[in-house]
Amino acid sequence: MEYGLVAVWWVAVVGLALFGLPVAAWLCSTLPGRGAGFSLGIALTIVTLVAFWVGHLVLGWVALGAGLAALAVAAVLAVRGGVTIDRRAAAEALVVFSVVYLGVLVVRSVEPGITPGGEKFLDFGLLASLYRAPQLPPEDFWFAGESLIYYYGGHFLASLLTRLTGTHPWFGFNLSMAVFFGTLAAGAYELAGSIAANRSSDDSTGSRFASHESAGPDSAITADSTVDSRSIANRVTTGLRGRHERVIAGVTAVFFTICASNPSTAIRLLVRRLPGAIRGEAATAFAAAHSQLVTEWVLEPIPQEYNYKVASRIIPLTYDPFPLFGIVRGDIRPYLLSTPFLLVVAGLCYAYYRTPATAVRRRRAVVFGAVPIVGGFMAIVNTWSFPTVLGLLWLSLTFADAELRSLLPTSAATTVDRFVDSAASATMRGALARTIGAAGITVGAGFVGVLAALPFLLGPVGSRPSTPIVVLEAAARSSLGSLLLVHGAFLAVLVAASFAWLRGRVATSVVTAGLLGYLVLVALAPTTLAAFALFGPLLVVGWYVLATDRNVGFEGVLVVAGLGLVLFAELVYVQEGGGSRFNTVVKTYMPTWVLWASATGVLLPRLVRGRGEWSWSRRRQQVGAVLAAVLVVSTAVYGGVALKSHFDDPDTGGSTLDGLAAAEENIPDQVAAIRWLDNRSGRPTIVAAPGIAVYAWSASPASSLTGFPTIAGVSHEIQYRSREAYVDRVRAVNTIYLGSDAWRAELLSRYDVEYVYVGPSERDRYGDIRPFDGLLGVTVAFRADDVTIYAVNHSRLSESDRNVSG
């Protein structure tokens, strides 16, 4: 293990978080922890977004320095604004980040390799090419001469951290992964902990705004100058209880965010231990709900080398990963990299939700400044996340106490007042008007977010073919069994929480009848309507709760947002990546996971212990405790089994974070050549055999493991360039290896090739390759093991180029 690099990265990242603390404290002054857990996410957003804009002129230390300077300026301005930092909350966030950061590195240290599987070649190629790029947008390392058409913001951030710490990208790949997961954990802890602390205080005082200090000079919150000893004692007791609730909720949220999985693995183990009379039928039913298993496999013992991927492929023809799966596999996919910043957005929305109506400047700063800026950054990290950000903001505006008109200029507010706020929010017309008004303000905030990401949206990504939204065929919708396997753990919490809220407001008999009716509806619903029967009633209840009970916490907004994402993927899909709903499911499922995990951090402890209107009898609290125990155990089983297999069968002989370790194991005869190429300065264009097989070691390793552009890389490019464009490039590469010297010279000049790579993949594909030694201007630059690399001298090559005819 490279302990020095681990320490350097920790110091660098914690330093960034310290500068982010005052900015977070100013934006989240209405939250108990002052947004301490969001400080790193906010700091990374500022640094990367500024570097992104500057990077269109020049990258390297200039862009990074501009980002760091912007963060320092923001921190100074926040401090001058008179912020108060919660040091204990900051310490808690640091502990959470550090534990997860180190834990992820321990997991990755036994399997650190950058392999073709799971699109790691794509992810590392993005990181390495951005690290080497002279400016943005970067050249596509699998399609030389053309700009990258992909959302690369998260990989750009990883490249900045790699440069800041003086690390080679092969190591930066795994270290940046740990930073992202640590930031995600700190955000989940902060969000759930803040909601729980405020809920505890609200239960004690009956006021949504009772648990925090003044929100600033424009806040209407003041303290009574004459308080007796009893009120002081009550405040102290409330504060201590709030701290306690914060820790419990935060730890619970971190567990479900980072350590938990769907319960499919636990159910599979349980089925094998059922009595023989029902074991076969249960195994058949389980296999029918799990697209990756058949009855025989369910009944067999889980092997020592457990296939951890099975738990992420439950719904047929989709992908249902969760953060722990990404940790075990070693993912820095865009849908994962965006999740820490989604929780930052959720925290900012919650800060708005808690800010009193009179703090107009602060609310405007959050709605039209902080949220859309972070959302714009997320559009660069994972464009799919931008609509989720807007949806979360829309829900927050809809259900917050403050009047919408106060966010607008006076002239516009007068018009809005007549339509929106003049109607009582308790009426149907008032609720509809407020919902529409919130949508209008969200559109305005979305425009700011688009401006923040404008160079990206107007750049090469804007040239991609349109991806229409298509109605999902009824036969392709998820079955009840698969939905329960994927969402079952969170669903149990949501149903229990809905029951607990309703029982305090309507007769118990009515609630019981409603629950039974819901179960009957779910059981009898046809497969094509299973998702709507399962989640539709919960969405209605969640919306009704938020609309009618102003004391309900922000966890309700998180729940409703997740329900909306789940149902969206069952109604329509974005026709991208082969025309299936694969991408739509994975990129709505991951944000749903982190939103519901944070909400569960608040809801589950309250179900167990009882607070406010949720005060149950001791027996019911015992039922809640049993539910919590079952959920924790069932969702933790996967981690135990998968990690045991992971550590029992390491890919390396010892602990290391070197991403090239897998290449040394799988393609040892090419490692010396790849290291030699990597030591070349700049970003020279190379030519190598096209990587037709996306998930094989023949997938352009020379380009993928260095970030150097190649004429035609992996066939993944077909999704972005069209089949015709990719095939034309493949033909050009074929000609370079097999054609006449004249055509070779012309193509090497056309694509400005500096190195020709001849290794095992090239020999397998082309057989007897015509020698390059006789081509004027081409000489052997490197030869070792099974690879020869030729250097191209273009000044001499031009003499051959003149002989091309026709």
Automatic annotation (TrEMBL):
Give the UniProt keywords, A-Z. Membrane, Transmembrane, Transmembrane helix
Output this protein's name. Answer: Chlor_Arch_YYY domain-containing protein
What are the transmembrane regions? 6-28, 35-54, 60-79, 91-110, 170-192, 332-353, 365-386, 436-459, 480-503, 515-545, 552-573, 593-611, 623-643
Record Pfam families: DUF2298
The protein's superkingdom reads Archaea
- Presence of the UniProt keyword Transmembrane in the record: yes
